[in-house]
Amino acid sequence: MLFKKLGQVKKYNLAMTFFVVTIFVILIINLISLNIFSFDDDEVTKIRYADNISQTHQELIEMFNAKYKGEIEVIPVDLPFTKFSTNERKELLVRSLRGKNNEIDVFATDQIWVSRFSKWAEPLNQYFSQQERNNILPSAYSTCIIDSQLVSLPMYIDFGLLCYRKDLLEELNNSNDIQKKLENSISWQDFIRLGKKWNQDHADNLFYLFSGDNEEGLICSYLEILYSKGGKYNPKDENDLLKEPKLEALQFIKNLIYKHKLTPKKISQFKEVEGYRYAMQKDIPFFRAWSSNLKDTLIFGEYSDKLDKLKFAPLPHFSKGSSKSVFGGWNLMISRFSKNKKAAIKFLKFIVSERAQKFLYENAYYMPVISSFYNNVERSEETPFEMFTLIMDNYGFHRPKYENYTRISNVVSYYVSNALKDEHISPGEALKMAEQSIRSGEIILE
Fold this sequence. Notes:
Layout: H1 2-33, H2 39-42, E1 45-51, H3 55-67, E2 72-78, H4 86-98, E3 106-110, H5 114-117, H6 130-134, H7 138-141, E4 145-146, E5 149-150, E6 153-165, H8 166-169, H9 175-183, H10 188-199, E7 208-209, H11 216-228, H12 246-258, H13 272-281, E8 286-290, H14 294-298, E9 310-313, E10 325-334, H15 341-351, H16 354-364, H17 371-376, H18 385-394, E11 396-397, H19 405-421, H20 427-440
Parallel strand pairs: 1-2, 1-3, 7-8, 10-11
Antiparallel strand pairs: 3-10, 4-5, 6-8, 6-9, 6-10
């Protein structure tokens, strides 16, 4: 009886052993099929990076991936300027981050969005030494700080500037004298006279372009006019939009279209890249642009042959003011919900390395954000370094740093763009409607 029971126990143990081994083998097979035990992938941490992935961005990513081959791989998530305005990109990111998912590890934000996105961002103070932070240009570093906390890192800095076609300018008499004026910031009075002279031999309204669609680019042009007139904008102050010279600034922009006939009415349909394309297509001699949008946007497009003919200058100024250029640029933030923060930090440190910053500038005119670059840069006539630093150091200013700035800006750009579409909408009416909408919350554009 005892032996019989022992035999049964032995058979039971063998059966259990076989069962456990079988389950284990099946589990191993399933894990292998899911690539969990794929040694090629298991050791590589993949981080997803959302940005406008231009040719230069892609090459920079490949440089990083080559450096950290077998350890980290950056997977680009492309949100191109050619498909999305800055406002639309912001909305896509907001919707993703509100869901608290970990689909994106690193994302690029317009520097003016940093306050808006800081609640979804990983604080960075602990990852960057004081020496590393001191190497970042103050004009770029200031955009990364919210409540004394480092929440983003600048990738590059840029600013508004005046682009002109030197080959078209040479069609005018005394073009050399005109170019000298441009290089030192031409006055708006002289610029308008030049435009009227141009119109004598060319189509009206095709002398000067800027972004006029309902987006942040329009607000930047508006603020550059306003600040050049000596004004300021404080979105926290009630009725601030109804104070001079806000009305004067908008009237001046409307006059470029309807009075002086230097700018086409259809600019109200143009986002920034669309405006660049139209300027190239129609051979328009002047347009407002960002320093970072030019080479990387146009060189791979259908008008790349005209890129070498582009020259750069500070924006025009008023007789009682000076040229003003809005600071722009894009910062990188790490999602608070990322599971790959250590790898993401390495990517950010790579982006602000001298090697990466030099590559960004030499390949696409993205202005570096580290002081060491400017101490070691090799001057070259092939790049507009001197002109860019002149504008950046002497004429740049920041938009108001305010958590609700983007919401208010959306409302203002909507009404300002409408005023440019219709000659009969006065600046006072447009800005009054904008002010009422901001204070009442009747219009929510995000």
